Each structure stands twice: as C-alpha cells, then as structure tokens.
Amino acid sequence: MQWWYSGSAIKSAREIDRLVDEVILADDFNPEDLREFSTKVELRRMDSGNVKATETFPSSDGWRSGTVKISLPKTKVCHDSEAAAPTFEINNIFYHPFLASIRAAYEESSAAKYHNIPFQLFTKGATPDSPPERLYSEAYNTDSFLRLNEEIQEKAQNDREEGDSLDMEYAAAPVMLYSDSTNLASFGTASLWPIYFWLAALSKYVRATPTAFATHHLAYIPSLPDIICQAYEAEYGTSPTEAVLRFCKKELFQQLWLLLLDEEFMHAYVHGFVVQCGDGIVRRLFPRILMYSADYPEKCLVACIKFLGRCPCPDCLVDKSRIHLMGTKNDLAARTSRRRQDTSWLRSTIARVRRWIFCRGTAPEGKIVNSVLGETSTSPNQSAFSQRLAQYGFDIYRAMVPDLMHEFELGVWKSTLTHLVRILTCVGASAINELNARYASIPAFGRGTIRRFGHNIATLKKLAARDFEDLVQCAIPCFEGLLPIAQDRVVHTMLFRLATWHALAKLRLHSDSTLAIFETITQQLGQAMRAFASHVCPQYDTQELDREYTARQRRKAKLHRKTSTRKRLNDSEHAKKTFNLNTYKFHRLGDYPREVRENGTLDNTSTQTGELEHRRIKRFYIRTNKTSRFQSQIGAHERRERVINTTQMQPGFPKNAPWKKKARRLMTKKASTGLRLPHDQPEEAGQCLPQEHHYISEEQRHHVDVTGFVHEHEGDPAVENFARDLRRHILRCSHQASGDPQIPIDEYEPTYNEFASLRLRHNRAYIHKRMLVNYTTYDMRREQSSINPSSQADILLLAPPGSAHPYLYARVLGIFHVNAYMAGHGDETPTLIQVLWVRWYNLDSDEPWCINTCTLPRLVFAPLDDSPFGFISPDQVIRAVHIIPAFAHGRSDTALPGYSIARSNDGEDDEDWNYLYVGIFSDRDLFMRFLGKGIGHGLPASVTESLTGTSFDHVHAVDATEENSNQAQNEAEQDAKDAEGDEREEEDAEEDEDEDENEDAEDEEAEDDDAEDEDEEESERSVHNASGNTSENGGDDGEGEDDNDGEGDDDEDGRDYYDREYEGFAPF
Predict the structure, then answer these.
(1) Residue 7: partners with Cβ closer than 8 Å, 6 or more residues away
(2) Is 811 exposed, middle or buried (0-12, 13-18, 19+ CB in 10 A)?
(3) Cα 437 to Cα 459: distance, rounded to the nearest angstrom
(4) Are strands 182-183 and 191-199 parallel, antiparallel or unpaired?
C-alpha cells in the first residue's frame, strides 16, 4: 500500500488487486527472477526483437523516421517549374513501411482467423417458395471485396507470377485505412495525427475490439509547423496567406502518402508478395485499399477537394444548394449520374493548374483556379493515390466511405437537437425545465446501452457521440406535448424517422429486405426534415443559446487578438439562428443504403473503431517525457504492447489464471423491501453458460416466510391471493415436469387435495438479486440480459399463438425460488422451483403500434379487475425490455390505488405513469424484434406482418419539395451562399470537437470550447423557403390500425396462457 500511495497517482485499487492476483500469486512467480531486473534493459530487449515468440515482428516492420519536402508557391512570383520553386523540409515523420506492416499482420497467429476468399451470405426465404435472401454484414461479404477477388483470381488463371506453383493460393489483402488528429491531453496543445489500418479479412467483431490489437499504426503525420511562416518569409519577404497555408497542409498530407506508397508497395500491388500466413499456408497476396474512413475535413484532405465548396461531397457532384432535397427521386438519380471520378482529364487539369501556380504566380484559390476547378470543388493538389494507383483502376473517391458517428450522431442529429432546444427556449423556460426533467427520469437500460441522463441535458455540454445516440433513442417521449398540437405532430414524425433511420444504420446485419426498408425510411426522413424546416421552424424567432453566444464571443476575442485591431467588441445581443439543411452531413445520409451493399454494414466504415484506438495513444502519451519527440515514444510503447500481447496469444504460452472478483465479506442481513434484495446485500456471482437459457443463484442466504410476508402486507392489492396463486403456479410447473399426457396443460387445474398436499420447505421463499437471461440476437450472436427487480425489471415474453401482438410485457417484482414437495406421496425430496413475481402491462389498443404511422407500442398497467399480478417461470422470459414513461400523459393511481409494495421502485409518489412506451430504439436487437426481420429471431411471416402493420414497398405521398424544386432553386442558391461561411465555421470547429466525442467526458474538457462552437456571424437564412412548401409530415397516418384491433381483449388471455401452459420457451 505504501507503493500505491507513492510515486505516480495513476494506479487504481483494481490494478493493485490485479498485481497481487495475476503476478505475485501466480503459480510461476519466483522472486529470484527479479534479481538484477532493470526496466530499461527489458525495454531495449523488446525494441531489439530479442523476445521469445516475436518472430512475427521483424526489424523491417519497425518504426522509421522520414523526411518530405513541399514546394512553396507565391502569388505573382514565377518559377521555371514546380521543381525550381523553394521547398520546405519536414523531418521526423515516424512511419512503418506499408508493405512490411501488411506482411507482419498476415504472419501473426491471428491471421488464421482471416477470410481470404470473400463469399456471399444467404438466408432461406420466409416461405418454402421464397427465394434465398442475401445478407450483408462483414467486409468479406461485400460487392467491393468480391470484385477484388475476381480480379486476383483472373490473374491467378491467366497471368501467374513466374515460379509460382499451380497450387499456390492467390488472394487479395484488403486494407481499411483511417486517419484523424486527436488531442492527447485535456489541457495544452499536444496532439497526434495518426494513420491506422485494419485488414478487412478479419471479422469486425474481432477487429473492433481494442484488446484484440487488430489496429495497426502506420504513420504519425506531423502538423504543419509554425516555422514554415519564417521559412516562407525568408524566401519571399512576406508571410504566407491563409490560402497558401491550406495548400501546404494538403501538400504535406499527400507527400506523406507518397512516402508510404513506395516502390516496394507498388511492386507488391502489381505482382503480389509471397508470405507464409498465420495458418501455415503460403500465399501470394495482393495489397488493395478497400476503404478510407475519416471525418469530413480529413476526407477533403484525402480526396483533394475544397472544404465546404460548391460540391462538398467527395462521392458525387451534387450542388450545395440542392442538398436539402435529400431522398427525392431527382437527388437519388443525381448521386449516380454525377458521381466523382478520378479521370485522366481531371489529373491533367490539376497538373496544368499547378503549372500556373508555380510558373505564372497564380493564386492557389484565386479566380483563375476557381474558374477551372470550381465546378467540381477540386483543390489544386494532386492526390498521392491518384498518382500511384489510378493507372491500375483505383479511384480514391470510391474509397471515401460514410461515417455514421460524425455525419449523423454528431452531425444531423446534433444540429437538429440543438435547434429543437432553441425552439423550446422560445416557448419558455418551463419547456426547457420539463425537457431536462423528462430526460433525467428515463431509466437506465442494459450494460451501458442507455445510461442515466444528467439533470441539465438542454445545455448540450460535454456530450460524446454515445450520449447523442442515447438522446435520439429516447427523444420521442421527452419531446411529446411540449409544442402546440400541429407542430408537435411534425416534430414527433421527424423524431420517429430519425430514430428509425438511426436504428437501421446501426444494424450489424442487413438483408435485402431491411435494405429496402432502409431506402424507404431514408426518403421519408428527407420528407420529415423538410416538413420540420418548412412548418415548424418559421414559427419561432430562434436565437443563439447561451453557450453558443459565449463561444462566439470567445472566437471574436481570439480573432481580435490575432489581427491586433483596436476595434471594440460590442455585441451584447444573441444572434438569430435558423435551421440549415444544406449541409454535407445531411446530404450524405442518402448514400448509406447503397454503401451497405458495397462495403458492408456501417460499423465497418464508421470512424468509431479509430476513435477507440485514440484512447491507447492517449494512455501512451502519459508515459512519455512530453518533449518534441513524443511521437517516437508513443510508437515504441505501441509496438511493445503489441509484442507482449501477441506473445501471450502464441500457442503453448503459459496462461495466467483469469482475474476473479473477490468474494465480498458477508454482511449483516438487512430487511428487504418486499421480495427485492437490497443493493448492499451480497449474492453469489454466478455465470450463465452460453448453452443455458438463464441463471439464478441457488444460494439460500436471504429468505422470507411466505405466510409472514402476506400478513406483513395485508391489504396491499399486490399481495392479495399471493399464497394461493404461488401454489397454483408451482403445481402447474410440477404437472408440466411430470409430462402427464392425459390432461392438457391448458385445461389443468390443481385439485383441492393437491393444494392440501403441497408443502414449501420451511415455508420459505429464497430471494435473489438478479437473473441472467441468454438470447439469440438478430445477427445470430449470443447476448445476455440482466434482470434486477430494483433497477432493470421490465421483461419481454412471447404472446400465445393467434394474438394480435406478438409479445407480452411485465415488470418483475421479485426473483426467488422455493423448495417444494408433495406430502404423503412417498418421495418427499423437495424440488427447487424458480419463480418470477410480476406485474403485468396491457397493450394500449387506443393507439395501435405501427412503424408507418410513427407510433410506438404504448402500454398501461393492468387494472385490478384484470389480474395485474402473477407468477411466471424464468424460462418464459425472452429478454429485458426498455419501458419509458409517457411523460405527456402524467401520473395517477387508477390502476393501483394507494400505497403498494409493487410500486416501491417508482419513487416517493404512490402513483403510476398513466401510459408507458416500449423503447424499441434502445438497442438493435429490440428494434429488429419489432421490425420483424431479425435472422436470428426466426419469426414467422404472420408475426412479421403483425409487427410492421404495412409494407414498405413504396413511399407514401409525393414529395412536394421535389415538385417545387425548380421554383425554390433560386432562393436555395442564395441561401446556400449566405450559409456557406457560417457552415464553414461550424465544420471547422467540429473538426477538433468530433475527434474525441466518443470518449469519456473527463477526456473532453479541452474540447468544450470547440464543442460549443457555432456560427460567428449568422446571416439571415431561410432554408425553410428553400425546402419548398412541403405538405406532408412524413407519416402514413391511419395505415395499419386495423391490424391491432382487439389487442386489449387478448392481453388477459395471454397472461392466462402462461399460467395454464408452462412450455419452457427458450428463444434460441
């Protein structure tokens, strides 16, 4: 402990336990091994490669230091050629040789898990006559990988390399690239600009796990040093302009990639390289760049396009003034007909413009350059990928994949949520307070799936991407009823479309059916967003939020200091803010369904995996001396950690016993709240094996007397008939276990003699804190729910056959087991029977659930005359479900008058929420259970139809925006010009903010200023006019209502079905 409290403070109590359990108490630990131990000696030994089982890390794969030169242009200064222009040299660029890194990755033992030959994945149709349906999940299931494989196999058949045997396997080595700058500390300016790569042949479920060490560090890009201004002034006698510095920054990026795409890599690109892979097979592999993930500013650097130019998209040439038409037929057609292409004409045009810049002194961003390249918003920088790979058919524009995290969660949704808060600010402080209170009242769900919200969520401070994800998943109940009815309906439809689109975009397994729905929802989302901009936003004079105003003042002060102007800053009023749909991020949403077919589900292309890797380098930065060469030290730490962990993965390497949580000291027993075990009471921490349906502890430490429990709560409606109903449930379970075929289960009713013979050992119920439930997810993986009556008590059950709604819902009031036996029947050995005591929900038939009508499943607590309490077997539970209060409808005690033990989990009021919503968007699996397309769920077609209500074969209603697009074009062009400068500042600020938004809040203090950044000088924008006079709200009101008629009549029968028939349902 003295060691813990001395030296560095970055040592947690858990790490101390791990040091003792995994090192000092390990079976192979010998103190004599530490004699003459030196950390420096061991680190040098690791760096030199003299460590056992690290042959997969040859010295050729080590970090290198390189140098690049960039040419410096000057307006009105002519040179004989670009080569004759002054250059600026940038040293100490740390990088791995690209080819050597790929080779090392294939030599690792983990390469045995690679899928070197891509394939298509299919599932059987819903009916025997239905054709197979294609599935999309991994990168090696995608069309792009399949095309690469066809190219390689054609070479294997017709143009094999000399000396290769006929049985040598030819395969592509598909590389996924990522780059982005990140701050290394909460305070200060230390930053790193890394390039990572992954191999798409490895499953994303492994690749996205940080502990799998599947992320390879390729290079650390240096920022453009400040000394370049001095060098420039020494050459030309004047400081460089902002345009010249932007030109040089792009040149630095491209020159670095020219360094990485060296001759060795290019030779392997054409002829391949022979390597013995981790599975022992010798292959000739051909490196191919499959995709490049990055945020928008980084994409502009990679693709050499103008930041927020006239055509801001790196994939197509859609004009910025028409971006608000996202999802219309004309927009979707333009994405195909006007795709960017890396043509020889474009390359020659850029080369000609560069000659003008260096030989004629043309300004890099002047009118002459814009007259040639402005139509496509291309910058006068030649892409390294174009120079090296275009001749072999590679197009860098096709590699620019979508980024769900930055483009939706931190882009479209964040801007929409911000404007909704502005609108509520106009409504009044009470609306903001109500919004904050509602979000704070939403219960947590899952293991970090939905976390508790803060009490002042409307400030939008220190929120990461995962927080915005939670906000959109729970937004509908929180915003319901805060605006007038007509506007509330438009906002409700928009929020429902946003949540549905987000849920579909987050799926890890798509099929042709879900992609068809995704395409339709994308179009409906465009309609809903334009309806919001047209019908709601103009009704309010929205202004800056306080945080936006403060951030704008800080930016002005910074500009004031930079320009050294004496003009006083006198702007005490909040600027006007309007809702802008003409943004690149909104435009990009229309490409997502197509990209799933091309490159797999969007978790393959998201930058989230790269952002997670940033956490490692931030951890390494703490261990450096923080000097100017900290990049090399971070690289050394990264390599050492990889060596250690890869060595431990080698076959035959001794494994330490897994660290186990120590058993907690037995505590004095405290009185439980009903059948709930208090949080501070210990319980055996068991595991639910994958082949089991559920796990409940069998320990008998905590118990209550059944008769005493009933007497203690006499008069409570929840405990009325408790003992009788419990005995009936136990007898029915016993009858089911006996398998008596003479009496059907649904007709079985225990006799008086059976009631009289049933005994509970010591008349006790043994209480448990939690139940673990295994289930199969929509993407055919095993997941687990933790059911706890005190924190996560709501469960999902399968409804009886023929029900209008496929599920039943209940709240678990207690988890316990009894030891039951039949007295006077010979063998009186007690049988352990596990029981869940539940309170039932009824499905509200007044508002039928349907995706097309944008209605969530709405529940009410069953009234006292509808058998609201009962007992079920744990085998009947499918999984946990997220139930969110319908805040707009208030509370009452109608369903359960007065105090009740069943309500003690709801707080201090003796009331229930009048209505509650099923949080179908809270996680992917829940959403797919209600969409009805989950492959792992295996729901029949009849259930699927009852879920969706109507088909998604077409988009209901003609988009009025498209009809009026020509009329709105002139207004939109002017609005886009007005908004361009404002959006440029928003994107520029978000470039720093977004890079760490997916990390813990404590790592984001340095980003707070940028996170609050908004427009500096907001000019008048009326995007709602540019959006056209949209008349629809994006919903198909009235459709599918008949599908759920009579749901309320079936709920009671459904619960009786569970009492009558114990089938031991397991959803897998």
Answers:
(1) none
(2) buried
(3) 13
(4) antiparallel
Four-point Cα dihedral 514, 518, 519, 525, nearest 10: 160
Beta strands in 102-239 (DSSP E): 121-123, 133-136, 169-179, 182-183, 191-199, 216-221
CA dist 1067 → 179, 509, 618, 680, 770 (Å): 42, 19, 42, 33, 20
pLDDT exceeds 50 at position 981: no
Nearest to 140 by CA among 166, 104, 180, 113: 113
What's the length of the chain?
A: 1068
CB-based contact 1001:1044 (threshold 8 Å): no
CA-angle at 1061, arms to 1060 and 1064, nearest 5°: 145
Q: Burial level of 165, CB count in 10 A (0-12/13-18/19+)? A: exposed
For 996-1025, b/e burial (b = at least 16 CB within 10 A) is bbbbeeebbebbbbbbbbbbbebeebbbbb
- Residue 262 identity: D
Question: What is the bridge-based pairing of β-strands 87-95 and 216-221?
Answer: antiparallel
**Mean pLDDT confidence for 294-319:** 94
- Write the pLDDT tens digit of every residue in 508-556: 999 999 999 999 999 999 999 999 999 999 999 999 888 888 888 888 8
Range of lowest pLDDT (11-20, 338-347, 375-384, 1048-1057): 1048-1057
User: Quick check: helix, strand or coil at residue 551?
Assistant: helix
Residues forming beta bridges with residue 810, ordered by sequence position: 795, 840
Q: Do the Cβ atoms of 799 and 843 come closer than 8 Å?
A: no
3-state secondary structure 346-367: HHHHHHHHHHHHHHHCCCCCCH
* C-alpha torsion sign, points 529, 535, 540, 541: positive
pLDDT band at 656 (very low <50, low <70, confident <90, very high): low
- Tell me the pTM: 0.86
Non-local (6+) Cβ contacts of 920 within 8 A are 856, 857, 926, 927, 929, 930
Distance CA 1067, CA 693 (A): 8
Residue 557 burial (10 A CB sphere; 0-12, 13-18, 19+) = exposed
**Measured between alpha carbons, how far is 493 from 852 in angstroms, rounded to an integer?**
10
Q: Which residue has the tokens 């508790």?
A: 452
Give the distance from CA 795 to its chain's centroid.
Answer: 24
Encoded tokens for 920: 């179908």
- The Cα 832–Cα 114 span in angstroms is 46
DSSP state, 956?
A: S
Q: Beta strand 807-822 with 891-892: parallel, antiparallel or unpaired?
A: unpaired
Number of other residues whose CB lies within 10 A of the CB of residue 545: 21
- The string of DSSP codes covering 650-697 is STTPPPPPPP-PPPPPP------BTTBPPTTS--------TTSSEE--
| SS3 per-residue string spanning 51-73 | CCCCCCCCHHHCCEEEEEEEECC
Distance CA 15, CA 21 (A): 10
- Give the SS3 label for residue 810: strand
Q: What pLDDT, in 10s, does the model give residues 209-224?
A: 888 889 999 999 998 9
At 95, is the secondary structure helix, strand, or coil?
strand
Q: List C-alpha distances in Å: 1064 to 709, 776, 873.
A: 28, 16, 8
Q: Is the dihedral of CA 603, 604, 606, 612 positive or negative?
A: positive
Q: Which residues contact 838 (CB under 8 A, 6 or more apart)?
A: 795, 810, 811, 812, 813, 869, 870, 871, 872
Model confidence band, residue 993 (pLDDT cutoffs 50, 70, 90): very low
Q: Is-contact 322 331, C-beta < 8 A?
A: yes
d(CA 196, CA 292): 10
What pLDDT, on a 0 to 100 scale, did the predictor assign at position 1023? 32
Q: Is 825 exposed, middle or buried (0-12, 13-18, 19+ CB in 10 A)?
A: exposed
